[in-house]
Amino acid sequence: MDAAADAGRPVPWQEAVIERIAQQTARVRSLFLRPQHWRPFTPGQHLDIRLTAPDGYQAQRSYSVASAPAEEGVYELVVERLDDGEVSPYFHDVAEAGDAIEIRGPFGGHFAWQASDGGPLLLVGGGSGVAPLLSILRHRALAAPDVPALLLYAARGWDDLIARDELLRRDEAEAGFDLVLALSRDRPRRPQDAGRRVDAAMLGDALARLGGPPRLTFVCGANPFVEAVTAPLLDLGLDPATIRTERFGG
Ligand SMILES: Cc1cc2nc3c(=O)[nH]c(=O)nc-3n(C[C@H](O)[C@H](O)[C@H](O)COP(=O)(O)OP(=O)(O)OC[C@H]3O[C@@H](n4cnc5c(N)ncnc54)[C@H](O)[C@@H]3O)c2cc1C
Fold first, then answer.
1. 30, 24 in Cβ contact below 8 A?
2. pTM (2 d.p.)
3. How far is the CA of 209 from the centre of ligand 1 (A)?
4. Has residue 3 been placed in a domain?
5. Best mutation site among 25, 63, 83, 110 for ligand 1, i.e. most ligand atoms within 8 A of its Cβ?
6. Domain boundary residue among 68, 90, 107?
7. How many domains does the chain divide into?
8. What is the pLDDT of residues 66-82, one digit of tens each?
């Protein structure tokens, strides 16, 4: 069923099988879910997942879709382990390929990008906040490779970078895509990267590299990260109407 045809109807829960699990970093795993009914989505959107314990207790959380819509049939979720968390450790310590979980969605209207939205695009992600930005970048490469895009990606260290090899490869191969890494507890490996947290100077440099004001800016990560990025972006003169944020919590 296409997205327009079922707009407005409640989205039901359905079963999805974990087809494959890939360890991204020490604390992050990708789960590839195959639902009974795959629904099209716009990059940036998220799924709700629901776990039910044997005693009937349920826990529900949201996870951004990291795959591109062209990968029909499967949704990739990128889940970071929070040691004191209720749900995310399940995906690291318990879940196995072949298990079934309940999902609902995809949902989300504001934090979403489609090719017709155009660019330039400034994408700023912290930690697992890169997940929806990966979906946008993967879709851009297929559907709108001429749209200029820059990803400023903050992580603790080189080994904490999700989809690191893919992003470095895209940076090399895709004209119009630029990757800048901000490593808060590691040394930078490339001249364009920085060994510190994202700050106003780094955001200013990113805007200069993009070569013009972004048509849209997407900022995603934990609450303090989103705050730390959006305030300087406004100081640098970006129109608030062009900035879209997704907060993961924390
Ligand atoms: C729209 C949306 C999309 C999301 N997409 C993703 C995603 O792609 N990948 C992903 O890993 N998470 C994502 N999240 C966060 C996710 O929904 C859960 O909040 C997260 O996995 C923690 O759940 P938990 O049950 O393990 O921890 P909880 O038991 O809910 O919380 C444990 C503690 O960790 C804090 N906390 C929650 N999230 C964070 C965070 N990001 N950073 C630091 N502290 C935090 C809580 O405030 C609490 O104190 C998304 C959230 C939203 C709203």
1. yes
2. 0.95
3. 31
4. no
5. 63
6. 107
7. 2
8. 999 999 999 999 999 99
